[in-house]
Amino acid sequence: MKNLFLFCFITFSFIGYSQKKTLQTKFISEKIEIDGKLNEAIWNSAAVAGDFITFEPDNGKPIPENKKSEVRVLYDNDAIYIGAMLHDENPDKILREITQRDDFGTSDIFGVFINGFNDGQQDFQFFVNAADGQADCITTDSNGEDYSWDAVWESKAVITDKGWVVEMRIPYAALRFSAENKQTWGLNFFREVRRDRYKYSWNFIDSKLGTFTQQNGTLEGIENIKPPVRLFLLPYSSFYVNANAKQKTYGTLKGGLDLKYGINDAFTLDMILIPDFGQTKFDDQILNLGPFEQQFNENRPFFTEGTDLFSKGNLLYSRRIGGSPSTRPNLATNEVVDASPATVNLINAFKVSGRTKGGLGVGILNAVTEKTTASIRNTETGARREELIEPLANYNVLVLDQRFRKNSSVAFINTNVTRNGNFRDGNVTALAWDLNTKKNTYNLAGDFKYSYINTTEDKKGINSQLNFSETSGKYRYGIGADIMTKDFDNNDLGINFQTNYYSVYGNASYRILNPTKYFNSFNTRINAYTQFQKETGKIQSNNLNIQINSDTKKNHYIGFGINSNPLESYDYYEPRAENRFVIIPERIGGFVYVSTNYNNRFAIDLNPSYAVFNEKGRESYGFAIGPRYRFSDKLSLNYNFNFFRQNNNKGYIDTYINPDPSSNSDQTIVFANRNVVTYSNTLSGKYALNSQMTFNVAMRHYWSYAENKNTLSLEQNGRFTDFKDYTANKNSSFYSWNADLSYTWWFAPGSQVTVLYRNNAGAFERNINKEFNSNVTRLLNNDALSHVFSISLRYFIDYNQVKNTF
């Protein structure tokens, strides 16, 4: 009888958790003050959302009674209101680190997830931490959480003797919903108790399923509201003072305007007029010894906000817009370049994006860059001339993404770059699909891409991939293949390094879904990949690796892995010559990763690694160490040191023209047997006066050098022989310094003042000075450093507020 009762209890509990919960809201006419007190009488008449369920680590377990969570929802003609009472038996132990916006820090969190169309496609998520900080993002199952999206809304968090209280006002302008008289929204609530690292949700989120946004509950009762006019203006003004030892100090005043307009209930227009990116984060440049360009992160807000649609097909690398000029100057033997801009100025840009109730997502991005010239001087006559290295250019992206059955999609993508005159134009078209079974247990994904480059000789190429995977349960697996022809080229608006290959790959994984005696989470994964050169069938690359990641009961992260290249491979890119290759020997290595619990005031990250090649004396090893200390809820510092060394690395350094006409070849591809050593030091920290005012520091010193021991000739068979005829110094040493000191004040919703002092220095040399201290001090002097001081003011104007005022 007891067993039968237990069986029934478990069965009905599971049924209850698997069903969608429904919460009724009610209309209000009185004003609610967002003060975190919930002392307006109307709150007591609202229905309560309770009975939260553990999301992780113990998925499916009811929330403890001493962490009981009660949430109420009200609405009026302009906004939706959320009031949450989050019980905690030890209020003094609630973690509450003060951080910048979109940074949770070491704090308890409460969040609300809203889908105005209740279609399981996209959540608008709003979070408040126990230190009264805000975070918001757009979430989709295909792209995860996009915290670059920012909305303007109000919140207040207050610690009480029973736990903590959150009060939120989210205006309709921050949401998307239809114009129907009777609304049904997708809804979920989220809570994290940081000191335990436990996460809870109101509607059960089953971790066995490969979806997040489709497991919301519903909100009912909203009637007769209308989507507001979503028109936001963000005028800004910036003043810059630039100084360095090579030129006179000068100031620059800039001004411009960003505009956001809701075309209808689904689509938004974003425009940037007279852009100013002077305060964006600096790029972490490296000593790049390889055949491919360095890829940089996008730090410009316009190109990071709400770009989930534009990531379809992986065709957009937005750093191309306003990046390096597409050509270099043509010089005569007696000419030199006096000045050549490293980047092209952006004139303006706009994007339109959104998704209809029927699941059709539309994304349009357009940007225009100005023509750019290089200044060239004749060394004999002194005469100067200008040469066009980048014409007026137009960049376009179009995405049509049709979602169906709430969890699958087919997308059409086109990227196009048109340059004025006889310069290169590029066009890439793609069809991408992401198909999931109804229960989100299996996935079939892939794409087909076609590129057309209009130059003196037209280039046409294709790239296609297909993969199948199981996406639920403890045991999961995936298999796939792709192919890319030699002339596929998406580098006008995308980024791609390797072509002319086909590959096959697979993976298998195991994970625990509930905590065990020793682990809160544990997963292991094995991956295999092999790539073949398309014409010859030679193996271009191969990899077999296994990784294990775990979270202990004390919330320390521990992982390790073994990474191997079990077969020789033929590298067709490092020689920098058509149809030439270098043979890369077999390799095996491993790493360990330890990250102690960030809840502790002192925590540390450790990551040693080692690898050895099937070649005498050829190896690589390194380690990273990252201590962090939280002095208080206001002050914290993080330091990271990285060291990496490669012994007897083989790399290209030059193409040598043979002076002897009787030689078997008119040129020799020269490699170096070299040691490559890299050091990197970064320091970041913040001091928060409150959740609206923060001082921040970010510093980075980088030094890397490649010391050539002897030179080698690359033979036709991909092997090396000694090449003593080459005597040029091709050693490389690059070091750089960057420092940002900033103050940010959010003085009104959506409006901020930023004061920034930045200095930087860098140099590339052929002579290697191995004295670390002198490499640092040579950068930190007035002759080497460039200084920038700037003040920027951005003010948020909501048309609805202005309309009501006037």
Give a count of the beta strands, DSSP E runs of length 2 or more: 45
**What is the tally of helical segments?**
4
Using only CA atoms, what is the Rg?
29 Å
- Report how far apart the termini are: 72 Å
Low-pLDDT ranges: 1-18
Largest β-sheet summary: 24 strands, antiparallel, barrel
How much of the sequence lies in strands comes to over 45%
Mean pLDDT: 92
Roughly how much helix do the residues carry, as a percent range?
under 10%
How would you classify the helix and strand content by structural class?
Answer: mainly beta
Which geometry do the CA atoms define?
Answer: globular
Task: Annotate the secondary structure layout.
Elements (H helix, E strand, L loop, with lengths): L1 H17 L3 E3 L1 E2 L25 E4 L12 E7 L3 E9 L21 E7 L7 E7 L4 E7 L3 E3 L7 E7 L2 E9 L10 E12 L4 E4 L15 E7 L7 E14 L2 E16 L4 E7 L27 H4 L30 E5 L6 E10 L4 E10 L2 E7 L5 E7 L2 E12 L3 E12 L5 E12 L5 E13 L4 E12 L4 E10 L16 E11 L7 E15 L5 E14 L4 E9 L3 E3 L10 E3 L2 E9 L6 E12 L5 E12 L4 E23 L9 E24 L2 E22 L5 E3 L9 E17 L2 E15 L6 H6 L8 E9 L2 E2 H7 L1
Parallel strand pairs: 1-14, 2-4
Antiparallel strand pairs: 3-13, 4-5, 5-11, 6-7, 6-12, 7-8, 8-9, 10-11, 12-13, 12-14, 15-16, 15-44, 15-45, 16-17, 17-19, 18-21, 19-20, 20-23, 21-22, 23-24, 24-25, 25-26, 26-27, 27-28, 28-29, 29-30, 30-31, 31-32, 32-35, 33-34, 35-36, 36-37, 37-38, 38-39, 39-40, 40-41, 40-42, 42-43, 43-44
